[in-house]
Automatic annotation (TrEMBL):
The gene is coaA. GO terms for biological process: coenzyme A biosynthetic process. This is Pantothenate kinase. It comes from Roseiterribacter gracilis. It is found in: Cytoplasm. The lineage of its organism: Bacteria, Pseudomonadati, Pseudomonadota, Alphaproteobacteria, Rhodospirillales. Its main location: cytoplasm.
Length: 326
């Protein structure tokens, strides 16, 4: 179903008036998008949603109804079409039909709520009978271990392109797309603030693989293969800089009262820091690390996504842009 009165894409942070005229996106208000749910049933309860919410990320059941259900309906149709295409391609190649997972990338700033978005989407997609096996992988598993970051003087560049083992990430995506039966991903711990040596998560034959991280849509000069070569669909979780700066600060203060109280936490030394110093510290980390990374490496990838969800200052999603639906 197509909404009665489509709107042209409004100007973007990077776009000029000229770009606006040639935007590949169709812009939906939340209400227009919600109408595309059709009869997709709500399969999550409030309790289940509570368990999926991230620290300080207040996604509501209304938002699940209005935003996530139409999206799962769209993805369900896309997966069906993708599978038909695979069958046809294998027939062309004269080989037995092979099944590879449908890969969905989720990008956005630090603290924008990618993990919650991905967890809720994964839970909803897994309730569809035609793709019950949904795996979720975060790209932090592909960060270089702290020892290596220290050796390269990159401890203050965590999350920047050079802080990841790009080759390992591409190898993983290639293996996933090749339909490998068992996939293994290194584990990053927010408690240790480091990769856990020798620890891997194992994923077996997912129908859909969600791949979430700030770097998933990045390209690099002179590089011929990039992560997005392996994606079937991509989503960018967007908001304005001021909102995400506040969310980062609020989350830091919340983690301070919870996760940092754990004596084993890397950030335990900040557990009892007074409020004023804590605010100053979190603002510094934002200003010196996460904001420059957002501006230089993350936000410029936004307009490569198939879908952009735009959050307001209260974290709620107010607008959705869909590529190719103009
Ligand atoms: N220092 C920390 N200690 C514990 N959990 C953390 C810490 N920093 C981030 N997290 C959690 O890690 C996840 C990923 O965070 P982040 O990379 O900022 O992306 P996003 O907020 O977009 O999901 C979130 O669930 C967040 O709450
Ligand atoms: C681990 C992260 C780089 C996010 O990684 P991602 O899962 O997006 O690959 C980020 O959460 C982080 O720790 N940044 C370092 C600066 C900071 O402490 O906020």
């Amino acid at each position: 179903m197509i909404p009665a009165s489509p709107k042209p894409a409004s100007s973007s942070a990077q776009g000029s008036a000229g770009d606006e005229a040639i935007s590949p996106y169709r812009v939906f208000t939340r209400a227009d998008w919600a109408a595309l749910r059709a009869h997709t049933p709500l399969t999550l309860s409030d309790d289940e949603l509570e368990r999926l919410r991230g620290v300080g990320d207040p996604v509501s059941l209304d938002e699940v109804r209005d935003v996530y259900l139409p999206l799962t309906r769209l993805l369900n149709l896309q997966v069906a079409a993708y599978r038909q295409l695979q069958v046809l391609r294998d027939a062309f190649l004269g080989r037995p039909s092979q099944r590879a997972p449908y890969l969905v990338a989720i990008a956005g700033s630090v603290a924008v709520g990618k993990s919650t978005f991905a967890r809720v989407l994964a839970a909803l997609l897994a309730r569809w009978v035609d793709h019950p096996r949904v795996a979720l992988v975060a790209t932090d598993g592909f960060l270089l271990p702290n020892k290596e970051l220290e050796a390269r003087n990159l401890m203050h560049r965590k999350g920047f392109p050079e802080s990841y083992d790009q080759k390992a990430m591409l190898r993983f995506l290639a293996a996933a797309k090749a339909g490998d039966a068992t996939l293994s991903v290194p584990v990053y711990s927010h408690v240790d603030y480091d990769i856990l040596p020798g620890k891997f998560d194992t994923i077996e034959r997912p129908d859909v693989l969600l791949f979430e991280g700030l770097n998933v849509l990045q390209t690099a000069p002179g590089v011929s293969v990039m992560a997005s070569d392996f994606f079937d669909f991509s989503i960018y979780v967007d908001t304005d800089e001021a909102s995400v700066a506040d969310w980062f600060l609020e989350r830091f203060l919340l983690l301070q009262r919870t996760a940092f109280q754990n004596p084993d936490a890397y950030f335990h030394r900040f557990a009892d820091m007074d409020r004023e110093k804590s605010i100053a510290f979190a603002r510094d980390v934002w200003r010196d690390i996460n904001l420059p990374n957002l501006r230089d490496n993350i936000a410029p990838t936004r307009d490569r996504a198939d879908l952009i969800v735009r959050k307001q200052a209260d974290h709620s999603i107010s607008e959705i842009r869909l590529r190719g639906a103009v």
